[in-house]
Write a structure and sequence with these properties.
alpha+beta, three-stranded antiparallel beta sheet, 53% helix
Length: 117
């Protein structure tokens, strides 16, 4: 006796081919989005605006502006801390934006199949 499974339970060639096409389409969308994300620029301020940093989606620092009021030769540590905070915030912003945008395409599948997208 043969058991008949509903069509959605069979993984025949047509459904496998459809899945591959869908995966390829998602991969193309992800590649296009990645290029768009890398071209984006983000403006980040730290220390109440005394340090302004511009970074792109490739996490390359494009510019760094330091307000004269934060520059104190006797307190270089504070200036260093504010610059580090600005760079860290910029990287976090780029990564969060990229993850949010990518999840719109992958629908969370990127977490199940790392490296695919």
């Amino acid at each position: 006796m043969k058991a008949r499974l509903p069509k959605e339970y069979t993984a025949g060639p047509s459904s496998m081919q459809g899945m591959l096409k869908q995966a390829q389409k998602m991969q193309e969308q992800a590649a296009q989005l990645q290029a768009e994300l890398e071209a984006r620029e983000y403006d980040i301020k730290a220390g109440g605006g005394v340090v302004a940093l511009k970074i792109n989606g490739k996490k390359e620092v494009l510019s760094l502006e330091i307000s004269p009021e934060i520059v104190d030769p006797d307190d270089i540590e504070t200036l260093s801390d504010v610059i580090v905070a600005a760079v860290n915030e910029a990287i976090k912003t780029v990564e969060t934006d990229a993850a949010n945008e990518m999840s719109k395409i992958t629908g969370g599948m990127g977490a199940m199949m790392p490296g695919l997208f």
